[in-house]
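Here is a complete protein record:
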Amino acid sequence: MANIKSAKKRISVIETKTLKNKMVKSKLKTLVKKVDAAVAASDKAAAAEALKEAVVALDKAAAKGILHKNTAARKVSRLTKAVNSIA
């Protein structure tokens, strides 16, 4: 355990940020699953609506540095491709 006051503060701050990042990542996974479920059910309208939410969340996560920008772009691309493939 750290003895220096500033080191103790850094540990506390890191724990707080880690929790926030976990919340965002968990939310992202849920949104992606909603898109996948709609695609599996061949529900074009629900898939398109879920895709909008997922894209916004992925872009925000990339902007905040929670996800790498290329990772977010890759996920958006794959989700969009899946939604567009629905007949």
